[in-house]
UniProtKB/TrEMBL annotation:
Organism: Brunnivagina elsteri CCALA 953
Pfam families found in the cross-reference section: A_deaminase
EC top class named in words: hydrolase
Domain of life: Bacteria
Highest classification ranks of the organism: Bacteria, Bacillati, Cyanobacteriota, Cyanophyceae, Nostocales
GO BP annotations, alphabetical order: adenosine catabolic process; hypoxanthine salvage; inosine biosynthetic process
UniProt EC number: 3.5.4.4
Similarity remark: Belongs to the metallo-dependent hydrolases superfamily. Adenosine and AMP deaminases family.
Record protein name field: adenosine deaminase
């Protein structure tokens, strides 16, 4: 039975190495020729990077091949793996639709093409044999102009059948020079009734307390308990949830040791701030969600009770979940119904 919810997974980083390699074998001799064999490609694709910027460059490798024509190919394999190997019942996929449109078009033409991308991703995600509840988070991007980012918000507002929220991504150190613009964009999104999350406090460059009041969830946010714990009471008061992606911080050089996350979990639990454990870029990491759980337990970063609390938090804070509780809780009600209660 599917049991888990994944709130922070990038479409570009979700393609596992073997699937991407097979695609290149069939469609890109030039890409295959760069590597001696598959192990060489996998090592390149999944190895740790020195900085977040260097790490994010890998997204361009996948974005360039995720087009209207190819997205169904990648999404089918993504959902098949998520259902069979990860036991996912709920999945939010995030990406920047503008970056899946043809580069040769003008900006206005690419904006117009974004709706087609959202529809393709949404329709391709409806797979009866892998019944996962899915939704999309559309990412604004720190290197895209205001007009494009505003159009992404408008598209999210107009596409609520498939889209549950907006985000900002692209490297958190680039927000500072346009901070007033980001505040304006988030205010606009909230005015349209669009849910919000954002990549903040992932690295030491991503500290923007001005943006926190506009977010319903916080993408990563680990630097808050690590360096700015005085902010935790406000997060608890607003009911915000951190989307913590453990393997990412090893891959980007943000943390030296995964055990540093114990401070993150301990301080958040003490302050009453929810954490959803996520994968971020399961393909780039070659890591699936249950492994993230197991790793945190193995290193004594969290207890089994805390893991269950994080799994509950993922459903509680899921933007498009119809239940907001783990399927295991629903199953318990069926197996052990309350005395005197007749099951329909």
């Amino acid at each position: 039975m599917a049991l888990y919810a994944e709130l922070h997974r990038h479409l570009g980083g979700s393609v596992v190495p073997r699937v991407l390699w097979r695609y290149f074998q069939r469609h890109s001799e030039e890409m295959v020729s760069r590597f001696d064999d598959y192990p060489a490609f996998e090592e390149f694709y999944t190895k740790p990077r020195n900085t977040l910027d260097e790490y994010l460059e890998l997204h361009t490798l996948v974005e360039s091949v995720q087009t209207v024509e190819t997205l169904p190919y990648f999404i089918y394999r993504l959902l098949r793996g998520a259902y069979i190997f990860e036991n996912l019942a709920y999945l939010e996929l995030r990406y920047t639709p503008y970056l899946r449109t043809p580069e040769h078009l003008s900006q206005s033409e690419r904006i117009d093409k974004m709706a087609e991308i959202v529809d393709v991703v949404g329709n391709a995600s409806q797979i009866p044999e892998y019944p996962i509840v899915t939704s999309q988070i559309l990412c604004m991007h720190s290197r895209l102009p205001y007009e494009v980012n505003k159009a992404i918000i408008d598209l999210a507002s107009q596409s609520k059948k498939f889209v549950c929220a907006i985000d900002v991504a692209g490297g958190d150190r680039y927000y500072a020079e346009r901070l007033d613009e980001w505040i304006k964009l988030y205010e606009y999104a909230l005015s349209l009734g669009v849910n919000t999350t954002g990549h903040l406090y992932e690295t030491t460059d991503g500290s923007y307390p001005e943006l926190l009041p506009f977010l319903k969830r916080i993408g990563h946010g680990i630097q808050i308990p690590l360096r700015h714990p005085q902010l935790l009471p406000d997060l608890a008061r607003r009911g915000q949830c951190l989307e913590v992606c453990p393997t990412t911080y090893m891959k980007t050089g943000t943390l030296d040791d995964i055990r540093q996350l114990k401070i993150v979990f301990d301080k958040c639990f003490e302050a009453g701030v929810d954490i959803a454990i996520c994968t971020d870029n399961a393909g780039l990491h070659n890591v699936r969600l249950p492994f993230e759980y197991e790793n945190l337990l193995t290193y004594d970063i969290i207890s089994f009770q805390q893991l269950q609390a994080c799994q509950d938090a993922a459903f509680k804070h899921a933007f498009a979940s119809p239940y907001h509780q783990r399927p295991a809780s629903l199953l318990s009600g069926i197996i052990n119904p309350q005395p005197g209660k007749v099951m329909a």
